[in-house]
Specification:
The complex is a heterodimer. Chain A is mainly alpha-helical. Chain A contains 13 helices and two strands, in the order H-H-H-H-H-H-E-E-H-H-H-H-H-H-H. In chain B, helix 6 packs parallel to helix 7 and helix 8 packs across helix 9. The longest helix of chain B is centred in the first third of the chain and has 17 residues. The chains are: A mainly alpha, B alpha/beta.
Chain lengths: 333, 378
Amino acid sequence: MKTKQFDIKKFLMNYALYVIMILMIIVIACISPKFLSLRVLRDILMQSSTRILVALGCMFIIVCGSADLSGGRVVGLAAVVAGSFAQQAAYYNKFWPGVGELPIIVPILIGVTVGGLFGVVSGFTVAKLKVPAFLATLGTQMIAYGVNCLYFNKAPNNSQPLGGYTESFSKLGTGSILGIPYLVIIALGMGVVIWLFQTKTCLGKQIFAVGGNPEAAKVSGINVFKTLMITFTVAGALYGLAGCLEAARTGSASSSYGLSYELDAIASCIVGGCSAGGGVGSVPGVIIGVLVFNVINYGLTFIGLSSYWQYVVKGAIIIIAVALDVRKYANKN
Amino acid sequence: MRKKLVSVLLSTAMVATMLSGCGNSSQDTATETTTTAATEASAEGDTAKSGDAPVAGVCWYNFADTFISNARQSLINIAEADGAVSVEDADSQNDTATQTNNMNNMFSKDVDYLVLNNINTGAIDEICNQILDQGCYGIFANTDTPSDANFEKNEKLYSVSSVATQSGTIMGEAIVDYWNTNPEADRNGNGKLDYVMLLGIQGHYDTTVRSQNSVQAIVDAGIEVNQVGGDLVCEYARAKAQESVAALLANYSDDIDCIIACNDDMALGAIEALKAGGFFGDTGKYVMVTGVDATAVGCDAVREGTLLVTALNNPITLSKAIYKVMKLTSNGEEVTTDSMGIEGVSVEGRRVWLDYKAITKDNVDEAAYDVNDTQIDY
């Protein structure tokens, strides 16, 4: 009897959010059975795709025992920069009038590079200059936003939302193979790559070690500086990629893109089982975390509720997740 | 343990700030018009300091705002080209405290004109008193206009602002036109106009006037309306609107006749979701979508036939009107609709009103404006 009770508690502690998500899906489907359709699944996955990339980047940093507030604004900057190089040659309101039509890989590489550079700056500030990560990345967040506004306001664009993307770039955001959108393939593909990196490579495991106990990691011969630099750079590159895809998905870009995506990402990571203290986190968990929030966003709008309910439900879920996280550690100690 | 608890608490606090996310604030606010007796502004001594051009100190609410950045650049260009008034400006960074600092700064520089793109709307009376004490001209630009009492107290007080309600009315009227001429616009044939409302930020002045006046114009035309879905607060963001409309379409695809968005970005997000949901183009399925701002991409959508209408608040008209008020008063001339002489600008007392312009497929080319256009005398 006693053992059984313990098991239920443990089960709820580990899987409460999945239970809540499944309950929500059941409730929404009862209100409107159309919710259980392929179209809805496809929409939710598609809306989650860019968020998954941001959350995966964020996961690296949280696992490493650090924090990153720059994600959203770096997504915004990468979206604008990538978008500015993805316009048709003949588009009348071209960002770079002299530049012809570029192959799709160019804007993506530029976007990823911009994101990566911001990761390098954040990483250096945290790892070398020893600035607390919250403040260092608050700084890079502001710089990213400022740079974005300056770039976006450059003549002849003068802060007009971007448009007129090349066909291949638009296809990236809207097209699909066998009914599976490219965006979803990219996001899940990156998830697999990162999962392999995290669980099968030495460096991946070092990141966990640094997050779990930096002192112990240092003593056991891990180069903490290098590990932090790589973590932040990879995260930045993922934000950059997310920015490119966000531009392609929405068919535009402006300096307001990516606002508060980093907080959504942190929330998804925590809900997905990353420990706010570092050293714990997995790719499948984070992806589920992102899906939980997108099911809420989509589902509540789907049944015609006001957007404010999304905040109430999301807030409640964050509280439950963090409360459970704290309890897990209380048990361990 | 303690460290972990601290970081948990920190992240909770951080996540909590997510709820207070701030969106694109925007630009134009104005209240209902009330006529006051026109009083000719006097242009004595104080503007003629040692024969130099009078100086205008301009406090814009946010340089990063598209509309403001265009108006600002245009005003600088006009002042440079004309030379009758010289302009220096400051950025309030969407913060009332910064605005107050900038304003005091302008006062200590002893400017002849204070042009205030005010965001501290609760303190209008206080600001008007400060301007009166300072003795300079005060021009409230693209914001709530001061009360009649303030205008009576200070004959050097002006306001230059768009008629914000028009942005909503323009959307509503375009919907009424389309509805009345295209019977198939009632897609589910229920005799009601089923609309989706994409809000910017609730309580935000633009969101309020645009959402209320658009629906009001439809109701005034005797059409019964029905709102589909809840209040969709998309914070003026394209991605959010796209996601919300995609979710609504999955459930109410056949029951939506029109989507009213409080700005072009959200309207374009809705159009993107509609395209993905099998509307427009060769599909033959059409839903009315309306927006405000007449951005370049918005005008593209108007040309393409996906955006029914967008309302243009021309930043160049704003800067020209501000400049013209300064130039006229510094010459001792009266500010009237005639003396202003700018299209879409009318003067009531010392309130200068700028009209929104409806941009549809028929006149989409008139939506273009040029920050280098410095012509103020017509």
